[in-house]
Specification:
Blueprint: E1 7-11, H1 16-27, E2 31-36, E3 51-54, H2 60-66, E4 73-76, H3 88-107, E5 112-118, H4 141-159, E6 163-169, E7 171-173, H5 181-191, E8 195-198, E9 205-206, E10 208-210, H6 211-224, E11 229-234, E12 240-241, H7 242-253, E13 258-261, E14 274-275, H8 280-284, H9 293-307
Parallel strand pairs: 1-2, 1-4, 2-3, 4-5, 5-6, 6-11, 7-10, 8-13, 9-14
Antiparallel strand pairs: 9-12
The structure holds nicotinamide-adenine-dinucleotide.
Length: 308
């Protein structure tokens, strides 16, 4: 699947999801520009064909350099994505960043934006959670920020003639993933193969989506939906518990650690312990994940182990 848009800006394109997306878009023959402050992204993850504007996107000057009228589409991924950060500064910086992007797009006459939101907007909703579930009651500052950003995008879609695609991601895994459960377990087991500390009680149960499936789904939705606002869950029908992730990672590393648990039903304040998104809307649009949640975890573990 490739897009009809020719010139594409990927914000946060040097990060985990972004750099894989940029590789895919460049491979499909698109002209790709990336804007990234390299806070968690890496220049060396970008293919040579992509151009990089280095800077903080909440700064209007960076936005003016990166967002120009010759673009056809903006795919907006740049964000501080640390879901365990419990401070309002993250809410302010992520929402300011998104408003800066939208404002600059309007100034130069651009009107197509895809945005990476998150399952965290649902809080602890019943599962599988459909896109029209209400009321949305996020339980983390990160989730509250994503919901506020979705609301801003909705205004541009409905009142400023934009076309908006919003992707509510499950947990995405694959090579280059950082700051998440799989790389965390690998790091801990490399330091001490005999022992693994698990945050919470290990029974947290979430849906994991392999990176290639995630990219396929994003491109499919952009090509096949064109309402002012198109909101889609991106996930798998299956889930994997934290205990199961520990078992898969240990198996792939050939170790048999003793597990200890920090206790409680969640890893941190604001963690949603059970998450499974309804993917019926996505299926009705003609797309289904090829890898189960367990497969995604195993593939990502193997690939992450090859990186070190
Ligand atoms: N990975 C997941 O499982 C997951 C799940 C739900 C949602 N998301 C969302 O998908 C997007 C990409 O996530 P990721 O996992 O690739 O994270 P990431 O941290 O690897 O990527 C984010 C990128 O944005 C850049 N960035 C951050 N703040 C910036 C700023 N102010 N100006 C310019 N660049 C900035 C970072 O340097 C990084 O390259 C994020 O919006 C995240 O919230 C990811």
């Amino acid at each position: 699947m490739s897009l009809s848009a020719e010139r594409i800006l990927v914000t946060g394109g040097a990060g985990f999801v972004g750099s894989h997306l940029v590789e895919r878009l460049v491979g499909d023959g698109h002209e790709v520009r990336v804007v990234d402050n390299l806070s968690t992204g890496h220049k060396e993850w970008l293919p040579a064909e992509a151009t990089l504007v280095e800077g903080d996107l909440s700064d209007p000057e960076t936005a003016a350099t990166a967002i120009t009228s010759d673009l056809d589409l903006v795919i907006h991924l740049a964000a501080d994505k640390d879901a365990s950060r419990d401070d309002i500064a993250q809410f302010q910086s992520n929402t300011t960043l998104t408003e800066t992007v939208l404002d600059r797009m309007e100034e130069v006459g651009l009107d197509k934006i895809a945005f990476t939101s998150s399952s965290t907007v649902y809080g602890e909703a019943p599962r599988p959670t459909p896109e029209d579930y209400a009321p949305l009651e996020p339980i983390s500052i990160y989730g509250a920020g994503k919901l506020a950003e979705e609301a801003l995008l909705s205004v541009y879609g409905h009142s400023h003639d934009f076309t908006v695609w919003t992707f509510r991601f499950a947990n995405v895994v694959g090579p280059r993933l950082r700051g998440a459960v799989v790389p965390d377990f690998i790091e801990k087991l490399q330091a001490d193969p005999e022992h693994l500390e698990i945050l919470g009680n290990g029974r947290q149960e979430k849906s994991y989506l392999y990176i290639d499936d995630c990219l396929d789904a994003m491109l499919h939705v952009i090509e096949h939906s064109n309402k002012p606002v198109n909101t889609f869950n991106l996930g798998t029908r299956t889930t994997t518990s934290v205990d199961r992730i520990a078992a898969i990672v240990a198996d792939e590393m050939g170790v048999d650690p003793e597990r200890s648990y920090t206790g409680g039903d969640r890893g941190w304040t604001g963690d949603v312990p059970k998450m499974r998104l309804s993917v019926e809307k996505l299926a009705a649009l003609g797309w289904e994940a090829t890898h189960s949640s367990d497969e995604a975890i195993r593939m990502a573990t193997r690939e992450l182990l090859e990186e070190v």
